Amino acid sequence: MNRNLTLIITSLLSILLITFHLTQDTLYARMGTAESGGSTLVAVPVLVLWLYGTLVFGERRSGHVIMLIGGILAIGMPVIHLMGPVGALSRPARVFGDEVARSGGAFFFFWTLMALGVTGMFSLLLAVHGLRELRGKAR
């Protein structure tokens, strides 16, 4: 399979997974937080730029750079949500207690995070490889 086509498909999959994730963030947000007010809609222009760069500029250097940045964003989702002082894994009582673990969407939420990490890392690797190939062709 063409490596560039694989990058485009992986990038599109990451965009889809991020929309699922942001929807879950909004649905499960606590009242009074920024997520409950729809602040995730700020991500819409970013996702549109990522989608445009993937579909329109997929063969160009600028498209590879956009997909590389998108891969970094996708990798960042599980890191932000699972690590650090406010991450889910640093609050095991909340994650493995009644609040999250027993909710209907807990499995899909964590599966989406893991899938985002995988597709993001794969996109990142393919974009770096594609940029190196494009640089070699420019010489």
Architecture overview:
- With 139 residues, the chain is mainly alpha-helical.
- It has one domain.
- The protein is 71% helix and 0% strand.
- The protein contains five helices and no strands.
- It has helices at 3-27, 43-55, 61-82, 92-96, 106-138.
- Helix 1 (3-27) runs parallel beside helix 3 (61-82).
- The chain is elongated, with a radius of gyration of 17 Å.
- The two termini are 25 Å apart.
- The model has no long low-confidence stretch (mean pLDDT 82).
Model regions low in confidence, pLDDT < 50 over at least 5 residues: none
- Count of separate structural domains: 1
Number of strands: 0
Total of DSSP H or I helical runs spanning 4+ residues: 5
The general outline is elongated
Q: On the 0-100 scale, what is the average pLDDT?
A: 82
Beta-strand content bin? under 5%
Please report the distance between the alpha carbons of the first and last residues.
Answer: 25 Å
Percent range of helical residues: over 70%
Structural class: mainly alpha
Radius of gyration: 17 Å
Topology:
Elements (H helix, E strand, L loop, with lengths): L2 H25 L15 H13 L5 H22 L9 H5 L9 H33 L1
Helix pairs in contact: 1-2, 1-3, 1-5, 2-3, 3-5
Short description:
This protein has 139 residues and is an all-alpha fold. It contains five helices and no strands.
Supply database-style keywords:
139 residues; mainly alpha; 0% strand; elongated
